[in-house]
Design goal:
InterPro entries: Carboh/pur_kinase_PfkB_CS, PfkB_Carbo_kinase, PfkB_dom, Ribokinase-like
Strand order of the largest sheet: 4-1-9-10-11-12-13-14
Structural class: alpha/beta
CATH topology: UDP-N-acetylmuramoyl-L-alanine:D-glutamate ligase
Keywords: ATP-binding, Kinase, Nucleotide-binding, Transferase
CATH architecture: 3-Layer(aba) Sandwich
Shape: globular
Number of domains: 1
Pfam families: PfkB
Distance between the termini: 22 Å
Oligomer: single chain
Helix content: 25-40%
Family: Belongs to the carbohydrate kinase PfkB family.
Strand content: 15-25%
Number of helices: 8
Bound molecules: adenosine-5'-diphosphate
GO molecular function: kinase activity
Length: about 300
C-alpha cells in the first residue's frame, strides 16, 4: 500500500563531465531522469513509500533506470519492460559556463508506448496520492490514455489526484497542449503550475491561483522559481519566498518542490507548512547538480534557514 503512486517516462541520461564541446573521449556520467521518477525518489527520501509505473526497454538503459529507482527505495515491481523498443536517452552537456544543451532521443521508444493496460490492478486504488504530469500525455495517445485511466481509478477509489502541468514546448505546441492539460487539471484535486503554464491552461493573466481552482482542483500551487511559491485554497492564499541558495542546476527543482509539498500533504501539514517544506526541497535541488541526486532527506530539512520543516 504505497503512500504515492506515479507514472511516466524515465530515460537514460548521459551527462558531459566537463564544460565545452563534447568530443570522442570526453568524460561523461551516466544517470537517469524523469519528472515523475524524481517526485517518487523525493517522497522516499522524506520517509514515505512510492511506486513508479512506466515502460522501459529490456536494454542496459532500462536496467540502469530500474536499478537506480530501486536503490532510491522506489517500488518498481510493476514496471513494464518492452523487448521491442529501446529506453529513451537524454544527452546533456554544459556547452559554456552559462549554456546547457540537452538532446532527447525518445520518439517512439519504450517510454512513449506506456498504455492503460500497463497499470496493475489495485496499485493506484490502494495509494494515498496519485501524481501525474503534463509530460506523459505529450508522448502519444496511449500514454495520454494511461494518465486518464490512472486518474479515473484514483477518483473512483477516493485517492487524492495531484497534477503538475509541466508543459514541455519541445514535445507539443501550446494550442495542442492547452486543452489537454486543462482537462487533466480539471480532474485533479491539487494542481502545480508555473505562471506561464497557469496562463496557458486558464487563459487568465492575473489571479492565477483562483483561475486554476475554477477549473476544478480545490488547491492550486504556483511555482515561481527563485521568487518563491504560493498556494491558493478555498480558505486562503499563502505565499513563501524561495530559500536563498546558490543556484547550480535549476532542472529538477520543480519536481523536488512537488515531492516536498506532497510529503507535507501525507504528513497532514497545514498549507503554509507544506509550502515551506516544498521550498526547502526545491532549494536543495536548485543548488545541486543532477535532476534527483540532490533531493533532501527528512533529517536534512533542518538546513538553510534554521527552521525545522521536518514536521
Ligand atoms: P519548475 O522547475 O517546475 O519550473 P521552479 O523553477 O518554479 O519549478 O522551482 C520550483 C520551486 O523550487 C520554486 O518555487 C522555489 O521554491 C524553488 N527554487 C527554484 N529555483 C530556486 C533557486 N534558484 N533558489 C531557491 N529556490 C529555488
Amino acid at each position: 500500500m504505497p503512500d504515492l503512486v506515479t507514472l511516466g517516462e524515465a530515460m537514460l541520461v548521459v551527462r558531459g563531465g566537463v564544460p565545452g564541446r563534447p568530443v570522442p573521449g570526453s568524460p561523461a556520467v551516466l544517470s537517469f531522469a524523469g519528472a515523475e521518477a524524481t517526485v517518487a525518489i523525493g517522497v522516499c527520501r522524506l520517509g514515505h513509500s512510492a511506486t513508479w509505473l512506466g515502460r522501459l526497454g529490456t536494454d542496459t538503459g532500462g536496467d540502469l533506470v530500474v536499478d537506480g529507482l530501486r536503490g532510491a527505495g522506489v517500488d518498481v515491481t510493476a514496471v513494464t519492460r518492452d523487448p521491442d523498443r529501446a529506453t529513451g536517452l537524454l544527452l546533456r552537456h554544459q556547452r559554456t559556463a552559462d549554456r546547457v544543451v540537452v538532446d532527447y532521443y525518445r520518439d517512439g521508444l519504450a517510454g512513449s508506448r506506456l498504455g492503460p493496460e500497463q497499470l496493475p490492478d489495485g496499485t493506484i486504488e490502494s495509494a494515498r496520492i496519485l501524481h501525474v504530469t503534463g509530460i506523459t500525455p505529450a508522448l502519444g495517445d496511449s500514454a495520454r490514455a494511461a494518465v486518464h485511466e490512472a486518474i479515473g481509478r484514483a477518483r473512483r477509489a477516493g485517492v487524492t489526484v495531484s497534477f503538475d502541468v509541466n508543459y514541455r514546448s519541445r514535445l507539443w505546441a501550446p494550442d495542442r497542449a492547452g486543452p489537454v492539460l486543462r482537462e487533466l487539471a480539471g480532474r485533479a484535486d491539487l494542481v502545480f503550475a508555473g505562471a506561464d503554464e497557469a496562463e496557458l491552461i486558464t487563459g487568465a493573466r492575473d489571479d492565477l491561483g483562483s483561475a486554476l481552482r475554477k477549473l476544478g482542483p480545490g488547491e492550486a500551487v504556483l511555482k515561481r522559481g527563485a521568487a518563491g511559491a504560493a498556494v491558493v485554497t478555498a480558505d486562503a492564499t499563502v505565499e513563501t519566498a524561495a530559500v536563498p541558495v546558490t543556484q547550480v542546476d535549476p532542472v529538477g527543482a520543480g519536481d523536488a518542490f512537488v515531492a516536498g509539498y506532497l510529503s507535507g500533504v501525507l504528513d497532514g501539514l497545514a498549507p503554509a507548512q507544506r509550502l515551506h517544506r516544498a521550498a526547502v526541497c526545491g532549494a536543495f535541488a536548485a543548488s545541486t547538480a543532477g535532476d534527483w541526486e540532490g533531493l533532501a532527506t527528512r533529517a536534512e530539512l533542518l538546513s538553510f534557514d534554521g527552521q525545522d520543516v521536518r514536521r
